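Lay summary. Proteins are chains of building blocks that fold into shapes, and those shapes determine what they do. In this project we predict the shape from the chain. Here is one chain we studied, written as its sequence of building blocks.
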Amino acid sequence: MFAWIRLLNRTNLHLDCEPLRECPAAASVLFPQTWPFSLEWLPRATYLVGGNVRDALLGRNAEYLDLDFVLPEGAVETARAIANHYKAGFVLLDAERQIARVVFDNATVDFAQQVGHSLETDLQRRDFTVNAIAYHPHTEELLDPLQGYGDLQQRLIRMIAPENLKEDPLRLLRAYRQAAQLDFTLEPATQATIQKLAGLLEEIAAERVQAELSYLLSTPKGTPFLKMAWQDGLLQYWLPHATVDGLTQIEKIDQAAIALSDTWQSLGLELSGWVRDQQRVSGAGRSWLKVAKLTRLIGTLETAEPELWRLKYSRTEVQAVLTVLKFLPQMSALVSSTTSLREQYFFFQQVGAIFPALVVLAVAMDVSIEAIAPFIERFLDPRDPVAHPTPLLTGRDLMTQLKLPPGPQIGQLLEALQIAQAEGKISTPAAALQFAQVLADAAKLQP
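And here is the predicted shape, written in a compact code that computers can read:
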């Protein structure tokens, strides 16, 4: 536990657990022993600042350390010396403002030159009070000139000053993302200021806006704040076709994802994953669940593509959203009528890996889980001949065994074999070869 003494502007932090391993793991960022380098490399005037201090005080922990230090001078030189000594990666992020990064296997460490004549001045230029608490690792002191610790206790996101939000308008949207991430609420005056400044978000690079939206779309905790951001005017420029109905459907998608995951844990993993591209961005990477949610924010198939390109989504993500929009009507028709195995085969071949996004959308649109269950079972079974057909023969097999020349006929025969396999007409290579021979002979008899 922590004992807090003189919780005024400068607070002493005492660590009352010994040995270190018995201390709360969530406070590890405040223990230099857990860092990938020795405290001795830091000048005495160095402070640990920002979200990592905030999270440690909240009892939050992350496996990968992300440390931010502020130094009155020599920030880049200190970073370079540490990188050289530990043979870690070194990146000069901003030569003018003297910001550098050292990259270890289990940590990213940023070193920045203090802004202003004192650390207090530097902290006063930050976004929110909870992010303006500094920790002195040499003396185990907290510097809290803006009473951020009090806002932590009240679980409030409070701006430091309207000018700070104007300086970097991305902070307007970041307030909602951090509130969702921390399970905080927005302080009323802060929210009112954001509403007045909402138009400034148009000035921000699309990639930065997309990164903040990514978290709000990645978790059910983000959905109420996504809706709040829309109500407060932050999404009108970037997502002009977003509506209250669409945001309500996103709430239903969250509920559908939970219900589906309760029944099929592996489907839940599919929804949170990205089958063809395992990229992860800031801990909240691409997922089929986010693809499903995006379809509710970008209007129709005709309006979706330009909006997604403007937000700098990747080609793969844009195509995924467009494919979901294209095949969603077919998905609903598929489960509401008696469909042949042949029709199911072609559907699965067309939708491929996006099936989880279609399923969660369909359930959110009131398709019953019972009705869609057979199709989910097919998708989750890698041996299912309808959803995941394994070729019984190759094109080379057909040319060799049936003495056929290369050409379109080979592809047609292979597709016919896949369909026959899906319909249960063939199940072995020998049966497939015999079936192909019959088709080839029939083709020869046609005029």
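What the prediction tells us: Residues 272 and 287 are 5 Å apart (CA to CA).
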